[in-house]
Prior knowledge:
This protein is an alpha/beta fold. The chain has one domain: Alpha/Beta hydrolase fold, catalytic domain (Rossmann fold, 3-Layer(aba) Sandwich), CATH 3.40.50.1820. It is built from nine helices and nine strands. The chain has helices spanning 31-37, 53-71, 83-94, 113-121, 127-146, 159-164, 168-177, 220-228, 279-292; strands at 10-13, 21-22, 25-26, 42-44, 76-81, 99-105, 193-194, 197-204, 252-258. The strands form two sheets. Strands 1, 4, 5, 6, 7, 8 and 9 form a seven-stranded mixed β-sheet that branches. It has a two-stranded antiparallel ribbon with strand order 2-3. The protein is globular, with a radius of gyration of 18 Å. The site of calcium ion (CA) has 10 residues, from α8. Calcium ion (CA) binds next to α8.
Amino acid sequence: MSANAPRYPLVLVPGLLGFIRQLGYPYWYGIVSALRRHGATVFPVLVSSVNSSEVRGEQLLERIAEVRQQTGAAKVHLIGHSQGSLTARYAAAMRPEWVASVTSVAGPNQGSELADYLQGKAPHGSLRERLLAMVLRGIARCMALLETGYKGSRLPMDVAAAQQSLTSAGVAAFNAKYPQGLPATWGGEGAEEVAGVRYYSWSGTLQPGITDQGGNRFDGPNRACRIFARTFVREAGHCDGMVGRYSSHLGKVIGDSYPLDHFDIVNQTFGLVGKGADPVKLFVEHAQRLHAAGL
Ligand code: CA
């Protein structure tokens, strides 16, 4: 461990359709290696790629137990991307004594308007819903076959539970049970510390002329984000394509309008991001922030 690295290990929790490595290709592209170069102990973990935040959170508690045992550390830092944020929040709510901090990176902490839109277009019991679920299950099964970074047992899949876990109504129900770190007012900041756990968040927004330039001119997921952004109503013009700026707020808001789409924020794909953006730096700076907080 280097002099300004966090004292506790960093556990990185992926979002929906998350993975550790697909045929060697990492989810946290260039991020794990950068954090390690700065002396941090880092564990990118896997939980069900498609499931509820509670089921994923229970699996995360098992991963945390393994990391604690392996490293001898009393606590871990949880950094979740997208649904990984809700997953981390659940684990911290259940075992705060195991968690030094929860950091939400583009987390739908008040739900995703894209999920709301999809639920409206493919309501419960409809043919569209069944087709959508079939496609999602197919993708998740293929991804499980290509996963090369995970050696644990097969993880359960539940498409309906995953969708419910991402809509505004579904997240509101989740928030009523696990409110730790949430802002009291829309667009505000949350408590920086609850039950001994620090809470932080950062997120980006699509910014025409910036996020669609640079490497993103050649990046499919950026195009997808621009299309998805059209489904936003409440946060129209202030989203990263999948999550709204204010919906992402949790605890201390480090920043909520970095010029990064929902995939850029984890340096996807292959580091292709908008003009002048540096998503990896945000992770390295955060590790230094945790160290400075004595954690
Ligand atoms: Ca990109």
